[in-house]
Write a structure and sequence with these properties.
It holds the Pfam family PXT1. The chain has 84 residues and is mainly α. 82% of the residues lie in helices and 0% in strands. The chain has 1 helix and no strands. It has one helix at residues 14-82.
């Protein structure tokens, strides 16, 4: 059974591995901040979309009320003419 050539290499000095760990932590922190920013922008987009949908619902409700109010007024008018 032969050993892999990497197996016989000496391990990295402690200072180098500490520096590498610090560099990896910085990269992880930067990635975490980017993910947070992406999540925040998605949340803002969803909130804006929800507000738009709410505005559309309110406008539709207003139109329905005006329409049925007009229909009701027309109905009363025609009913009054009928009894004249």
């Amino acid at each position: 059974m032969s050993r892999s050539p990497d197996h016989n290499l000496p391990s990295q000095p402690k200072e180098s591995s500490i520096g590498q760990n610090h560099h990896q932590e910085e990269i992880i922190h930067k990635l975490a901040m980017q993910l947070r920013n992406i999540g925040d922008s998605i949340d803002r987009g969803m909130v804006q979309e929800d507000l738009l949908q709410q505005e559309v619902r309110e406008a539709l409700a207003h139109c329905v009320l005006v329409f049925f109010g007009g229909v009701h007024a027309l109905q009363r008018f025609l009913w009054n003419i009928r009894w004249m």
